[in-house]
Amino acid sequence: MNLYPYANGHLMVAPYKHSSEFDDLTDVESLELLRSVSQSMKLLKQSLKPDGFNVGLNLGKVAGAGVENHIHFHIVPRWLGDSNFMPVLADVKIIPEHIETTFRKLKRELQKQVKLTTVKSNKSRKTIAPRKQKSN
After folding, report:
1. Active-site annotation holder among 70, 72, 74, 98
2. What are the tens digits of pLDDT across the range 78-95?
3. Could you read off the pLDDT of 62-121 as tens digits, one per residue?
4. 67 in any annotated domain
5. Tally of domains within the chain
6. Per-residue DSSP letter, 6
7. Does residue 129 lie in a domain region?
């Protein structure tokens, strides 16, 4: 979770490899990163029920990257009517829910998803017993 969120549930997803360039990632690393973004969006949809998302990368200091040497996706859930005048007038963001409350909601949903994935994978496993030899 982002400690300085633009909205409740603002997540950041980063690859294991520290790099400032997206094209430094291998195809496998890129795919893993995008799958993590997709899983994060699913988690947010099920736990916070947003109407949409802003998803993106800030590459380089001039682009707004707060962590320059480690690329990361921002996933910002959005709700109809969630913008207001406070950031314009007072450089203040209104977050309607405490970050720890949002964290607990996301954690509960993630635990459900992990449990469901484990059950599905266990059901798909089959034990194949060796065939008995015919005796003549």
Report:
1. 72
2. 998 877 655 555 566 677
3. 877 777 788 899 999 999 887 765 555 556 667 778 889 988 998 988 888 887 666 665
4. yes
5. 1
6. S
7. no
